[in-house]
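Troubleshooting entry. Yesterday's outputs looked truncated, so today I'm pasting the complete records for two proteins to confirm everything comes through intact. If either block looks cut off, that's the bug. Protein one:
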Amino acid sequence: MLRFGIMGLNEGNGHPYSFSAIFNGFDETALADCPFAAIRTYLAEVHQNRHIIPDARVTHVWTQDIALSRQVARIAKIPYVVSDYKELIGEIDGLILARDDPQNHWEMARPFIEAGIPVYIDKVLAHNFADYHRILKTAGEHGLLMSGSPSRFTLAVRKAKQEIDPATVRSVHGISCVNWIRYANHLLDGIAVLFGADFKTVQNIGENGCDVVRLVYRNGLNVVLQVVEGDALPIEFTCYQRAGGRHIRVPFADESDSFESYFWGFYGMLEAFTQMVQTKQKPPWHAETLAVSRAVIAGEVSKQRGGVVIDLDTVEPED
């Protein structure tokens, strides 16, 4: 049985509750104390203490607040709470860094990567190119490192993969809430499943809490994404096909199905991490997720530079 440690929480991100429950199950009485309504919904209605990843358990939890850690542990049946995340080293077979504030990713992941522990990092790998390259250099060629969004594994993306011929798509438009650096992966990882991640340029002309980003693939495909901070917007993209073709909407989460697609996205992602630790082999889409992280960081650099076009062939680590 693999032993995983989980680290969180940050504002607006309840992953330690749900990710841990996917491995451990959840306490049905304590679930009422979970502060995230969506998590309460999909654990009760979709997970139902039946859909549990075998051969692995979350055995240790750390958050920046010991009271929060104990609450997560109680809800998700985690036996050990630690007061310092470095206490996890030597106790776990893999780390789930379940925070999506990427400015903290390098600092928090570093001790585990240096110790050779497989690590999953939530969504974008890092918030700038300097940390991105530090993480990859420290992990080395054979380090077991995984990042990205569960959108890659959602039922909606899997369905779209069967329905869409990439050659017929002329443009992709998407929208999300929160902000680009935290939530772009929820759009781009799903898009990458359908079209790959061979981006040539990225441009972010947004400002004041609204990112507007154009990504151009080497084959000419245009992707236009808008991320609006603070609004309760859907997270979804639409693929526009040539005249006569259907326009296909691909939602990340849909309340109408009790977040079923959302849940199975999380399940698939954590199952893939478990398989990586078991087999000691990176997933076949590893390079694709790195390309997505580079594109996300490039979008942030573009905005900081007043909306300039960033060429991903020439961007340097110090950028």
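Protein two, checking that the full record survives here as well:
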Amino acid sequence: MAKLHELLAAEASVAAAYNSISEETLKVFGKPDHFTKQTTAVSYFAEDEKNLNTFETKDSVTTVDERLDWQLGDAFRSYFDLLAQKDSTNQKAQADVELDGKVFLTGVPATYLLTLETKIGDLRKKFETIPTLQPGPLWIEDKNEGKWRTAEASVSFKTKKTIRPIILVGPTDKHPAQVEKISEDVAVAKIERTTWSGMWTSTQKSEVLARLDALLIALKQARQRANCQEVVKLPVAKRISEYLLNGTL
């Protein structure tokens, strides 16, 4: 079985791997455009301009779910399990963590409960940065893409300037008509845009944040119960001082 000194020796590298992923996750969550897929279709009305029709796709880089799988993956489990093993070795004070009247975690050491409060609090800050869907459009789930999609494509028009004459005064038998030329924009093509997004809905985000808050409260309550453990007496100071001063073993 692994010894405590082996866990302590491995802790720095395991923590560094987890922190690196955490920093990367924060950077990605700060770039909402990484989560958006969009197609743009330009369709000209005139037959002689059909060859100008275009269809472009801008793919997304990732989704919130993919990033969370990475954030909460092997490095996360290795780091948190290591901390649990270390604190379990050092401490005898333990308590169950209860959520909604049920035991969620059993026999958790007091020192690890304190660690969990800190780490889960850090996770909450990351979850707060999760980008959410833009309000306004109606979003529907696209299971084929694993993303949300706008229910209807946004429509706009491509225009060009044209000159149109307007008769100000009609012609007479003595004078020609008075005509003025005006410039106006005429639609020449329709542009339809359909948007996909790997972001979360506001409801998804708020529900996860609520669960994080409930877990943090449960951890605090469990730590308070664990700290009621009677102190184990271990008179090491006298033994050390006698050895250092007198060489007594």
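Both blocks look complete. Sanity check on protein two: The longest strand covers residues 178-197.
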